[in-house]
């Protein structure tokens, strides 16, 4: 399995993260997205005419949408990440996978505008991104009242992996996440999962690491 | 604009290999400028009022000034050394004071916490004593004999090593870092942070490197440095006060902050106050 990857891309990070959480082995091929614009060159357009990354390749199959890649990778390496095989949970997972496209189109766009100078209607992106975060916050509150810590149920699924990166990276695009306590708790739950890996802007939980050195007798 | 000394300095505003004839609009210290090239590919920088600004093409970037530079652009002799790979890392915009971007680059103590398991790791958090001076003959800030334990000091480093560093500030928004070069002991890798001040609390950072590394693909070198810098970005955007305080107040510098103290003192001595605050904080 090959992932054409960019270290700063949240959509590529989703794939790296799920691979780490499921123990799947993927080969990373770094793409000079910035400043080189390699994803717009002929060899990449031949693989993906829409000129975007990630691009995922396995056994002759090429996938270019992060939600499709997550679905494939989970089916192959960790079917539990697809959620329970019930109509309701299948529906909820698919709902959030589709929703994650709105995050890419709003928060993701605001982020590359503010960070890498890519063109965008920044005010419109921030408005739409804020609306998305409010919807996630509301959904997580409902979930918590039902005793569930994650978006689609009581355990993490690819729905969480699809929506988590942009939710944490929103400040990179000038969108505050301070007003959303449920999002903060949820992102902590994800960062505490065994095998979690970070990306720039999404830090590991230092406070869950073992105390460095001998534990003092008195604190 | 009141900051005359900084107006006369050189600033990076573009990557030489990415210039177009139509040019790109950007900001330099609040003033709109256009960065383009002529039909021969030579850089041309013009201001909004039609003025043509002085330019230099050096270290992979276009340099310009809004004023009348009294000094030539600083020298990096290693840039011309045969065998080095020159890496244009690409621009990153940061909502912070240009001076804070430089100061963060000069700091070692944050490595284990911000660049965990790459440039530092707990429990190896101690910054050993190092030397700092303002070299009067060249009018630059230098920190030498800096040592730090690093799990993965460079893309070319196989495991943890104690890395030697030297830091150099030759201009108010430029920092050059020399560090142990894993494949070529005895030489220094050169990693720079060129900062374009757009406003007092907004800047564009153009990292650039001159490395001895024949193995690592160019894209990997770029991604490694972008990863490091983007780990800093969210920290920089949250620093308070937003402008860099040049006078000591409630902050208590420690021994590890000697480079920062010298940098602030040097800025103040020259009146380099664009992005700084003179009210103690």
Beta-strand content estimate of chain B:
35-45%
Instruction: Enumerate the strands of the largest sheet of chain A in spatial order, edge to edge or round the barrel.
Output: 2-1-3-4
Structural class of chain A: alpha+beta
Radius of gyration of chain A: 18 Å
Strand content of chain A: 5-15%
Average pLDDT taken over every residue of chain B: 94
**Main CATH class of the domain at 77-238 in chain B:** Alpha Beta
Structure notes:
The complex is a heterodimer of chains A (219) and B (281). By secondary structure, chain A is of the alpha+beta class. Chain A has two domains: 2-79, Glutaredoxin; 81-191, Up-down Bundle (Glutathione S-transferase Yfyf (Class Pi), Chain A, domain 2). Chain A is built from seven helices and four strands, in the order βαβαββααααα. Chain A has helices spanning 10-22, 42-47, 66-77, 87-116, 122-145, 158-169, 181-191; strands at 2-5, 27-30, 55-58, 61-63. A four-stranded mixed β-sheet of chain A has the order 2-1-3-4. The longest helix of chain A is centred in the middle third of the chain and has 30 residues, at 87-116. The mean pLDDT of chain A is 95. Chain B is α+β, with helices and mostly antiparallel strands and 281 residues long. Helices cover 17% and strands 35% of the residues of chain B. Chain B has helices spanning 4-7, 98-106, 111-114, 218-236, 258-270; strands at 11-15, 24-28, 31-37, 43-47, 52-53, 55-58, 61-64, 85-88, 92-94, 131-135, 140-150, 161-171, 174-180, 188-199, 202-211, 244-245, 276-277. In chain B, the strands form four sheets. In chain B, strands 8, 9, 10, 11, 12, 13, 14 and 15 form an eight-stranded antiparallel β-sheet that branches. In chain B, β4 and β5 (52-53) form a beta hairpin. Chain B is globular and about 55 Å long. The two termini of chain B are 23 Å apart. The A-B interface holds A 6-8, 30-32, 34-36, 38, 114-117, 171-172, 174, 199-201, 203-204, 206, 209, 212-213 and B 15, 18, 88-93, 95, 113, 116, 122-123, 204, 217-220, 222-223, 226-227, 230-231, 233-234, 237.
């Amino acid at each position: 399995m090959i992932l054409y990857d960019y270290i700063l891309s949240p959509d590529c990070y989703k794939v790296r993260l799920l691979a780490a959480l499921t123990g799947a082995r993927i080969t990373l091929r770094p793409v000079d997205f910035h400043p080189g614009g390699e994803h717009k060159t002929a060899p990449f357009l031949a693989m993906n005419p829409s000129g975007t990354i990630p691009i995922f390749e396995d056994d002759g199959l090429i996938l270019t949408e992060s939600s499709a890649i997550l679905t494939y990778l989970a089916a192959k390496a960790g079917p539990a990440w697809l959620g329970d095989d019930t109509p309701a949970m299948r529906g909820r997972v698919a709902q959030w996978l589709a929703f994650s496209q709105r995050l890419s189109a709003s928060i993701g766009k605001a982020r590359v505008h503010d960070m890498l100078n890519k063109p965008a209607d920044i005010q419109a992106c921030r408005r739409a991104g804020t609306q998305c975060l409010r919807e996630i916050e509301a959904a997580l509150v409902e979930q918590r009242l039902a005793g569930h810590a994650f978006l689609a149920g009581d355990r993490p699924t690819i729905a969480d992996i699809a929506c988590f990166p942009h939710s944490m990276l929103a400040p990179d695009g000038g969108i505050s996440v301070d007003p959303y306590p449920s999002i903060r708790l949820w992102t902590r739950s994800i960062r505490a999962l065994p095998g979690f890996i970070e990306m720039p802007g999404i830090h590991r939980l230092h406070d869950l690491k073992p105390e460095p050195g001998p534990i003092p007798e008195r604190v | 604009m009141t900051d005359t000394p900084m107006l006369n300095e050189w600033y990076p505003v573009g990557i030489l290999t990415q210039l177009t004839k139509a040019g790109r609009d950007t900001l330099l210290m609040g003033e709109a400028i256009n960065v383009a090239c002529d039909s021969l590919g030579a850089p041309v920088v013009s201001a909004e009022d039609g003025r043509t600004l002085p330019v230099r093409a050096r270290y992979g970037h276009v340099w310009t000034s809004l004023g009348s530079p009294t000094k030539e652009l600083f020298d990096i002799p290693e840039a011309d050394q045969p065998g080095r790979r020159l890496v244009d890392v690409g621009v990153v915009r940061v909502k912070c004071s240009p001076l804070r971007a430089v100061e963060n680059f000069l700091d070692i103590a944050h490595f284990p916490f911000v660049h965990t398991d790459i440039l530092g790791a707990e429990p190896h958090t101690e910054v050993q004593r190092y030397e700092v001076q303002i070299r009067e003959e060249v009018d630059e800030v230098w920190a030498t004999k800096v040592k730090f334990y690093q799990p993965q000091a460079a893309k070319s480093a196989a495991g943890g090593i104690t890395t030697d560093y030297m830091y150099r500030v030759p201009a108010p928004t430029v920092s050059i870092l020399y560090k142990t070069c894993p494949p070529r002991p005895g030489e220094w890798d050169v990693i720079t942070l060129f900062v374009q001040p757009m406003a007092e609390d907004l800047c564009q950072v153009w990292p650039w490197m001159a490395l001895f590394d024949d193995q690592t693909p160019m894209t990997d070198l770029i991604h490694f440095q972008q990863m490091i810098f983007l780990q800093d970005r969210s920290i920089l955007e949250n620093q308070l006060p937003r402008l860099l305080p040049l006078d000591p107040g409630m902050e208590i510098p420690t021994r590890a902050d000697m480079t920062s103290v010298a940098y602030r003192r040097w800025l103040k001595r020259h009146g380099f106050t664009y992005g700084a605050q003179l009210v103690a904080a």
